[in-house]
Design goal:
The complex is a heterotrimer of chains A (382), B (365) and C (167). By secondary structure, chain B is an all-alpha fold. In chain B, 68% of the residues lie in helices and 1% in strands. Chain C is an alpha/beta fold and 167 residues long. Chain C is built from three helices and nine strands; from the N terminus they run αββαββββαβββ. Classes of the chains: A alpha+beta (382), B mainly alpha (365), C alpha/beta (167).
Chain lengths: 382, 365, 167
C-alpha cells in the first residue's frame, strides 16, 4: 500500500503550544518524520526598544520577556548594567533580590508543572499549582504592587523595602508549600500512565544537549552538573547553602524531576534568606545614589538618578533564570541610552534541541517533550 | 412475574381498574395494537426524557466534581450551586452560529452528530433499570449492547472524514483503531459471564446475581469474575472515550479531534452523546458485574422502586469512578493503548475464558 | 594565562589582539579565520556557545561570540569585526548546533550574512520583511503589514493592501 506523508501545521493557535508557536510537521501517520519550528508571532522588538529607552526605562520591558518569571529578567538586566557601571549593591538589597528571584523560580516551576501535566491530559495539577502560585503572587503584590510585571529591581538595588509583615507571611507560604509539594508528588510522580508518557521520551544526552545550547533545568536533566549560581556565583549565592539539582536519565521525566527538586531547593534558600535578612540600605548610595532626602516617607529611601550614564564599554552577564541561562549583552556608548541590548533568552536556545528530541516519535511525545523544556513565547520571540 | 415495562404499565392500569375500559374502547374499533403502540411510545418518551435529564445532570456533576478535586467552586451562578448550568449551556449552544467548513462534505458532516446519539440511546433498550423496568428483554441482550456500542466509531469516522481537517481525520483514525482493540477484550470478558449464566439476556444475568453468600457478600459477578470485571471496566472506559483513553478528542494533541470543526447544536450533540454513552456504559457494567438492580428487599415499598434506586446508585458509583479517573490521570498514548489491548487484555481475557469454561465443565462452580 | 592568550599562542595568525571584557577573556579574530578559530576553541573545551551578538557601529559591524566551558568552568569571548558594506562571516553552525538559530537571528535582526549556514532565512520576522531592525539606519517610519497566505507563508506590504479581504 502506498502512503503519503502528511504535512501537519501545529499552531500558531493550538492548545498545547503554550502561546503562538507553530510546528511544521511532516508526519508518517502518527510518527513525526521532520519538525520545523516557526516562531516570531510574538516578536515585539524588545532589543530595538532597548536602544530607544534610557537605562532605567528599559526595566519594564524586561518584565514582558518571560512574563511568568519577570523578576529574574529584571535582575539579569540590572545586573548587566551594574557590572557595566561597576555599581556596588547594598547587602540588604541583594538579600531581597535573591528572595524575589527564588520565589519566582517556584512560581515558574509551578506553572511548568501544571501546564506539563495539562498537556498530558490530566487537568488537576494545573489548578493545584495555580492555587499556590496565587499565594506567591500575593506576596509579590505586598512587595511591589504588581502580580506579574513587577519592574521591582532598580539599578543599584530594589525599588522598595520589604513591607511590614512580609517575612511572617513568607514563612507561612514556605511552610504551606512544603506540604503542597508532597501533594503534587503523590498526585503525579507514582502515576503509571505519567511514567509511561514521560520515561525515555525526548531523550537527549549531555554532549548533544550542550551542543544544542540547552541550559538550565533542561540541561541538568541530561546529567550536566552545572548551575550558574554555583559556577559563577553572583549576588549572595556564595553564602547560601543549596545544591544544583541534577538527574542522569536525560529524558522528559528527568527534566520534570529536576524542576520539582529545584522547587524544594528554592524553598530551602528562601528559608535561609528570610532568617538572615540584614538591615541596611535597599539601593546604592555610594556612587550614583543620592543621600536620603529630608522628609522622605521612609528613612532608608534613597533615589537613583533617572538619567544615568554608565561609562563606555560592553558587558555580557549570565544569570540562572528559572528556565535557563538568561544573559544580557549591554553596550554603552556613554550616553543615557544603551547602544545595544542583546538578550540571550533561555527559551529560545532550549527550543533549538526540540526537533532533535522528537523526530521519530509521535505527536503525544512531541507534546510531552515540548512541555518539559518549559518555554514561554514572550521569551522566545522577544 | 412482570417481564418488562409494557407489562408493568398494563399491570398498574389494571390494578387501578382503567385498563379494561380503555382496552375495550380500542377493541370496539378493532385496534388493540394502537394501545400497545401508545404505551410503548410513552415508555420510550419517558426513557428519553430520563436519559436527557441524566445527561444534563451528569454534565453538571462532572464540572462540579472537577472543581472539587481542583479546589474550585465550579458553576455557582445559574441556580442553586449552578444546577441549571447545563440549561444555560444548551441555550448558548443553540444560539451559536452553525458553521460548516467550506471544504466539508455537507451531508455527512450534518448527519454524523445525530448518528452518534443513536447508538448511545439504543443501548438503553435491553438495559434493565429495575425489576421489570426494561423496554424489551431481548434474548440476545448483551450481544445487542456490544454490537450497538461498537457503532459509535462509525459516527466518529464520518465526522472526522467529513470535516476535511487533518486533526479531525487523525482523531477519527485513532477512534477506529482504538475501537477494534478494546471491543474484543470487552466482548471476551462479557462472554465469561455469559458462560456462567447460560444466557445473553440482561434480565437473566441480573437474576443470576440475586442472593448472597454467607448472608453478607452479594452474589455479584465482580466476585466470581474479578479479572473479567477489570478488563471490562478498562475496555468500557476506552469505549466511553474518556481520559485516560480519550484519543479521538485528546485536546492537547489534536485540538478537539474529530469534532474540531463542529459548533453550535452539532457540538452539543457530541457533548450530550458523550454523557449518554457514559451513562449507558456504566449501566451495562452495573448490570453485568455489579448485580444490576439487586439489593436488599425493603418491606412496603414496591420492588420496582427500590430496584430502580439501587440501579441508579450503582450506576452513579461507576460514573463517579470514571469522573474521578479523569480528574487525576493523564492520557495514555494511542500505541500504548493498542499494546495494552492486544498484548495484555486480549490474552488475559482469553485465559479467563479458558479457565471459566474449564471450571464450568468440571462442575467446580 | 587566560583562554584568549592561549588561543593567540595556538593561532597567532588568526588572533588580532586579546583583552578583557570586564571579567571575561576576549580575543579579536580575523574575519577569515573565524571557522578555524572556532574549531580550536571547541578543541580547547569550550563546549557551550552562549550567545552570538551582532552590533552595528555605523562604520563597522561586530559579531561577538560568548563561549563557556562546562569542563574548565571558563569564559571566552571572540569578536569579529566586519566592514559595513556587505557584512558576512563564516557560519559556525557546523560546530555548535545552537549557532544555527543564533546566526539566523543575527541575520534577521542585524543583517549579517553567515556563509555556509544550512538555512539562512529570517527566524523572528516574517519572510519578506524590509530591512533589519537592529541596524542603526533602519527605517522606523514605514509601517509594514503582515498577513498569512493560503499555505501559511507570510505576506508583507508597506501599504496595507494585503489586509483587504481576498475571496
Amino acid at each position: 500500500m502506498e502512503t503519503d506523508e502528511l504535512l501537519l501545521n501545529m499552531g500558531p493557535v493550538h492548545p498545547a503550544t503554550h502561546g503562538v508557536l507553530r510546528f511544521k510537521l511532516r508526519m508518517d501517520g502518527e510518527i513525526i518524520r521532520d519538525c520545523e519550528i516557526v516562531m516570531g508571532y510574538l516578536h515585539r522588538g524588545t532589543e530595538k526598544l532597548g536602544e530607544m529607552k534610557t537605562y532605567l526605562q528599559f526595566i519594564p520591558y524586561t518584565d514582558r520577556l518571560d512574563y511568568l518569571s519577570a523578576m529574574p529578567n529584571n535582575y539579569a538586566y540590572v545586573k548587566a548594567v551594574e557590572e557595566l557601571a561597576d555599581i556596588e549593591v547594598p547587602l540588604r538589597a541583594e538579600y531581597i533580590r535573591v528572595l524575589t528571584l527564588e520565589l519566582n523560580r517556584i512560581i515558574n516551576h509551578l506553572v511548568f508543572m501544571g501546564s506539563l501535566i495539562l498537556d498530558l491530559g490530566a487537568n488537576t495539577a494545573i489548578m493545584w499549582g495555580f492555587r499556590e502560585r496565587e499565594k506567591a503572587l500575593q506576596l509579590y503584590e505586598m512587595l511591589c504592587g504588581a502580580r506579574m510585571t513587577f519592574s521591582y529591581m532598580r539599578i543599584g538595588g530594589v525599588r522598595e523595602d520589604l513591607p511590614e509583615g512580609f517575612i511572617p507571611k513568607l514563612n507561612d507560604f514556605i511552610k504551606d508549600m512544603e506540604k503542597r509539594i508532597v501533594d503534587y508528588e503523590q498526585l503525579i510522580n507514582g502515576n503509571e500512565i505519567f511514567l509511561l508518557r514521560m520515561k525515555n521520551i525526548g531523550v537527549i544526552n549531555a554532549d548533544e544537549a550542550i551542543n544544542y545550547g540547552m541550559t538550565g533545568p533542561s540541561l541538568r536533566g541530561s546529567g550536566v552538573n552545572y548551575d550558574i549560581r554555583k559556577l559563577e556565583p553572583y549576588s549572595i549565592y556564595p553564602d547560601i547553602d543549596f545544591k544544583a539539582c541534577v538527574r542522569k536519565e536525560c529524558d522528559s521525566y528527568a527534566r520534570y524531576l529536576v524542576r520539582m527538586d529545584e522547587m524544594k531547593e528554592s524553598l530551602h534558600i528562601l528559608r535561609q534568606v528570610a532568617d538572615t535578612m540584614p538591615a541596611g540600605d535597599i539601593i546604592t548610595t555610594q556612587k550614583y545614589g543620592i543621600a536620603p532626602m529630608t522628609g522622605a516617607p521612609s528613612a532608608v529611601m534613597t533615589y537613583f538618578p533617572r538619567i544615568f550614564t554608565p561609562p563606555v564599554g560592553e558587558v555580557y552577564t549570565r544569570t540562572e533564570a528559572p528556565k535557563g541561562e538568561l544573559g544580557f549583552y549591554v553596550v554603552s556608548d556613554g550616553t543615557t541610552k544603551p547602544y545595544r541590548v542583546k538578550i540571550r533568552s533561555p527559551s529560545f536556545c532550549n527550543l533549538v534541541a526540540l526537533p532533535k528530541m522528537i523526530v521519530g516519535l509521535k505527536i503525544p511525545d512531541l507534546i510531552a517533550a515540548f512541555g518539559t523544556i518549559d518555554i514561554v513565547l514572550g521569551d522566545v520571540d522577544r | 412475574m412482570i417481564a418488562n415495562a409494557y407489562e408493568l404499565v398494563v399491570y398498574i392500569l389494571s390494578a387501578i381498574g382503567i385498563y379494561d375500559p380503555i382496552n375495550g374502547f380500542f377493541q370496539n374499533y378493532g385496534m388493540e395494537y394502537l394501545l400497545r403502540i401508545i404505551i410503548i411510545v410513552v415508555e420510550i418518551v419517558v426513557l428519553l426524557v430520563f436519559v436527557l435529564l441524566t445527561v444534563m445532570f451528569l454534565s453538571w456533576l462532572e464540572r462540579k466534581m472537577f472543581a472539587w478535586v481542583q479546589s474550585r467552586y465550579g458553576p455557582m451562578i445559574t441556580g442553586p450551586h449552578g444546577l441549571f448550568q447545563p440549561i444555560a449551556d444548551g441555550i448558548k449552544l443553540v444560539g451559536k452560529e452553525d458553521i460548516i467548513p467550506a471544504g466539508a462534505d455537507r451531508w455527512i458532516f450534518t448527519l454524523a452528530p445525530f448518528i452518534i446519539f443513536v447508538p448511545a440511546l439504543l443501548v438503553f433498550i435491553p438495559l434493565p433499570f429495575g425489576d421489570s423496568l426494561i423496554i424489551s428483554d431481548l434474548r440476545i441482550g448483551l450481544l445487542y449492547i456490544i454490537a450497538i456500542s461498537a457503532l459509535s466509531p462509525v459516527s466518529i469516522l464520518l465526522a472526522g472524514w467529513a470535516s476535511n481537517n487533518k486533526y479531525s481525520l487523525m482523531g477519527a483514525m485513532r477512534a477506529v483503531a482504538q475501537d477494534i482493540s478494546y471491543t474484543i477484550p470487552l466482548a471476551l470478558a462479557a462472554i465469561a459471564v455469559v458462560l456462567y449464566v447460560g444466557s445473553l439476556s440482561t434480565v437473566d444475568i441480573v437474576r443470576a446475581q440475586e442472593g448472597t453468600w454467607f448472608d453478607i457478600i452479594p452474589r455479584w459477578f465482580i466476585f466470581v469474575q474479578p479479572l473479567a470485571f477489570i478488563l471490562f471496566l478498562i475496555a468500557s472506559i476506552a469505549e466511553m472515550g474518556r481520559i485516560p483513553f480519550d484519543f479521538q478528542e485528546s485536546e492537547q494533541e489534536l485540538v478537539a479531534g474529530f469534532y474540531t470543526e463542529y459548533s453550535g447544536m452539532k457540538f452539543a450533540m457530541y457533548f450530550l452523546g458523550e454523557y449518554a454513552h457514559m451513562f449507558a456504559v456504566s449501566g451495562v457494567i452495573v448490570t453485568v458485574f455489579l448485580g444490576g438492580w439487586t439489593g436488599p428487599v425493603l418491606p412496603f415499598i414496591p420492588v420496582q422502586i427500590t430496584s430502580l434506586v439501587y440501579f441508579i446508585i450503582k450506576t452513579y458509583a461507576v460514573i463517579f469512578f470514571a469522573m474521578w479517573l479523569r480528574d487525576t490521570v493523564p492520557r495514555m498514548r494511542i500505541d500504548q493503548l493498542l499494546n495494552l489491548g492486544w498484548k495484555i487484555m486480549i490474552p488475559l481475557a482469553l485465559l479467563n475464558l479458558l479457565v471459566t469454561s474449564f471450571l464450568l465443565t468440571a462442575g467446580v462452580v | 594565562m587566560n583562554a584568549a592568550e592561549e588561543l593567540k599562542q595556538a593561532m597567532p595568525a588568526a588572533v588580532v589582539s586579546t583583552g578583557m571584557l570586564i571579567d571575561k577573556p576576549l580575543a579579536i579574530i580575523k574575519k577569515e579565520e573565524i571557522l578555524k578559530a572556532a574549531g580550536k576553541v571547541k578543541e580547547m573545551g569550550f563546549d557551550n556557545l552562549s550567545v552570538i551578538t551582532g552590533i552595528d557601529y555605523r562604520d563597522r559591524f561586530e559579531v561577538i561570540y560568548n563561549f563557556f566551558s562546562y569542563k574548565k568552568k571558563e569564559n571566552l569571548v571572540l569578536k569579529v569585526v566586519l566592514d559595513h558594506e556587505a557584512p558576512s562571516v563564516d557560519s559556525v553552525a557546523s560546530i555548535w548546533k545552537v549557532a544555527d538559530w543564533l546566526e539566523r537571528e543575527t541575520y534577521d535582526l542585524v543583517g549579517i550574512k553567515f556563509t555556509g549556514h544550512p538555512n539562512l532565512v529570517r527566524i523572528l520576522l516574517p519572510d519578506g520583511w524590509n530591512g533589519h531592525p537592529l541596524r542603526k539606519d533602519y527605517d522606523m517610519e514605514t509601517e509594514q503589514f503582515v498577513t498569512m497566505g493560503e499555505d501559511g507563508e507570510d505576506i508583507v506590504s508597506t501599504d496595507g493592501s494585503n489586509l483587504l479581504r481576498r475571496r
